[in-house]
Amino acid sequence: MSVELNKKLNDSKFTRWMALGVVAFTMMAAYFVNDVMAPLKTMLEGQLGWGSTDFGFYTGAYSFLNVFFLMLIWGGLILDRFGIRFTGKLATILMVFGTALQYYGITELADSNSVYFGYKAGVFISSVGFSIFGVGAEVAGITVTKLIAKWFKGKEMATAMGVQVALARIGSQAAYTLAIPVAKNFHLDTPVLIGLILLVGGLIAFFAFSVLDKKLDKQIKDDKTSVDEEKFSIKDVGAILSNPGFWLIALLCVLFYSCVFPFQK
């Protein structure tokens, strides 16, 4: 009886994999939005008058805030300080807001003659939206990684991470496969609208997950045998930056991103 009473949510195989499925849907929607505009480049040029420079500005906007304002680092600090639920909700809200701006940019501002910083209003607003989306998507990615480390232990952890990434990549493949047929049969902005709807569903899904995660936190707190999670300290940042292994892993990631991602857009 005592064993049953002390059983936590993540001790249930069904519950922890269900929780992963819920947040994986959010990331699937994020990957869909991230890649849905790439197949539409030719149609954007023909119907909205975007040039290659405009499209390059738009795609580069994804990383602008993360690189020049260190938003991904700040996101990691927020995650360590305020936890999975707060950071996940914030990241998903940013993704929804950013995607809504993208949609506004290619619909309401499509025929606008206004120019901002040398770019047409539609291009500029869509790029601002994509930049905000980029912050949310990257922060959501590290949040899900920490979430998996919390809900899964031992031999299942790597499997859970692989399953999450695989499901997210389905979102990318769906974007590459469906964007052009959907745009041709409906409207140029329809694929982005679908992505926005999916992200709203992902936001609702993350709120649903938060109910489970809050209950798990209460169970961990009540469990006398559980080891408390270390409190965040700003000194930890210095310890990470002084670790040579961190820089080697970071270099590997930079090389991978620079070799692969430029050819996806």
Write the layout of secondary structure elements.
Layout: H1 2-5, H2 13-35, H3 41-48, H4 52-68, H5 71-82, H6 84-107, E1 115-116, E2 119-120, H7 121-151, H8 156-185, H9 190-222, H10 235-241, H11 244-260
Antiparallel strand pairs: 1-2
Labels describing this entry:
Growth Hormone, Chain: A; mainly alpha; 11 helices; 2 domains; two-stranded antiparallel sheet; 2% strand; single chain; 265 residues
| Number of H- or I-type helical stretches | 11
Distance between the termini: 57 Å
What sort of overall outline do the alpha carbons produce when their principal axes are compared? Answer: globular
Strand order of the largest sheet: 1-2
Tell me the count of domains.
2
Total strands: the figure is: 2
Provide the β-strand percentage band: under 5%
Radius of gyration: 20 Å
Note poorly predicted spans. none
Fill in the CATH topology of the largest domain.
Growth Hormone, Chain: A
How are helices and strands ordered from N to C?
HHHHHHEEHHHHH
What share of residues is helical? over 70%
CATH architecture of the largest domain: Up-down Bundle
Broad CATH class of the largest domain: Mainly Alpha
The profile of the biggest β sheet is:
2 strands, antiparallel
Structural class: mainly alpha
Average pLDDT works out at: 92
